[in-house]
Amino acid sequence: METRGIARRPTAERMRDALERLATERDVWVSTAHPEHGPHQVPLWFVWDGRAAWMCTSAASATVRNVREEPRVHLSLPDTFDVLLVQGEAECFPDQEVPEDAAAAFAEKFGWDPRSEKGSFVYVRVVPRTVRAWRGEPELRGRIIMREGKWLG
User: Pfam families attached here (predicted)?
Assistant: First the structure.
C-alpha cells in the first residue's frame, strides 16, 4: 500500500470526516451472524440520522433473521483506503412501526418508500458502540474514534 504523502489526522478531524461520510455515503456493508446459520454480509442503502444508521430490507431477509437473534453487527463503508468501521447494536422496526422521521429521511434520500410496497420490510437501526477510521498505515495507531458509544474527538 502506498502511504507516502499521507498526513496523519488528529482524532477530532477523523471524527468530523467520519460523520461527514456517514451523512453523505449511500451504501454500507452490513455484517451479521446467527448462532446456527453463521455469518452473513450484504450491502444496503443507509441513512445516518446523527446518532444511528438506518437501513431497510425485506422482513424475510437473513439480515433481519440474524439481527433478531444476535443484535451485535458490524458496518463498513465500501472504501478500502479511507476505512470506516462501525460496531454497534441493531434493532428491527417493522415498516409500519418505524419512526416517521427515519422513514421520511430514507425515502427522501433514495426516492423509495418501502412502506408503500406490497411486501413486508423491516428498518434496521444500528447505534454505534465503537467506530474506527483510518487512511493508510500512518493512521492505524489511534484509529478508534468512538469507544463505548462516546466520540473521542
Answer: PNPOx_N
